[in-house]
Amino acid sequence: MAELTAFSYRKGFSIVHSLDARFKLLFLVIIGLSSLKASPAGLLLLFVLVLSGLIHAGIRLRDLFEELRFFLCFLLFVIAIRAFSADGPGLIEIYGISLSAGGLKEGFLVCLRLLLIALSGLLFIATTRMLEIKAAIEWILKPFPFVSGSLISTMTGLMMRFIPVILEQVKETSDAQKARCIENRKNPLYRMVKFAIPLLGRTFDNAGRIAIAMEARCYSDIRTGYKLSSKKNDWMVLFVVMLICVATIVYL
Question: What CA–CA distances, in Å, run from 65 to 6, 103, 122, 188, 251?
Fold first, then answer.
């Protein structure tokens, strides 16, 4: 069984847990759009807002950054590429390559937006049950003709449930390779191939087993769905989030 990760639902009694899933999806859209137009000070305010939501939901920052360590390394790589490739006055020069102050600032803002969106999505996943997500997606797609909301929501739920399983398989494959001293191989391409092939094989094998099990149980996407209902707290939090997002664009 897959271990509990930051990408899986965590039971709790926080305000974020009690919010309607439809409002949470709306918050994702509002925060994501606001981050595109927000100033640096506004981005920091949105980042503090999302980070406060994660802490309030009971997600430890240590676990959070441990799960996102590879994503954070990618963001540092993006900042470095942007800082050394942008035009403008240079701060320092390394082997004939100039480090641009403007590029460093632009790279930092881009990565802060990406991190903000990633943390917002993680907060949504960690505080929303799959039944609620499925019901919210069905409700959103209901007005659209020729679109099977139940089928799309079922596929989305299965995909999100499979993420912790894949992460656990990554850990098991990595531990198995370390036990066989694969890190002694100097060729990174060889290590990558030997890591990817068994990982993909086990992932497809598990997906096949799940599909067979669903067919054996006559599983169908047409099921009695979870009933969503908005409450006073949902509208109050929506007002606060919209107020903060407008402030990050207009006043900051």
Answer: 9, 25, 12, 25, 31
Specify the pLDDT at position 7. Answer: 63
Residue 149 has which token pair? Answer: 């909301």
For residue 183, the 8-state DSSP code is: G
The position carrying tokens 């707290």 is 233
Q: What is the pLDDT of residue 95?
A: 61
On whether the CB atoms of residues 138 and 149 are closer than 8 A, the answer is yes
Q: Express each pLDDT in 172-211 by its tens digit.
A: 888 888 888 877 777 778 778 888 888 888 888 887 888 7
| pTM beyond 0.85 | no
Distance CA 37, CA 41 (A): 11
* CB proximity list for 112: less than 8 A, separation 6 or greater: 43, 44, 47
> DSSP secondary structure string, 127-181?
HS-HHHHHHHHHHHHTTSTT--HHHHHHHHHHHHHHHHHHHHHHHHHHHHHHHTT
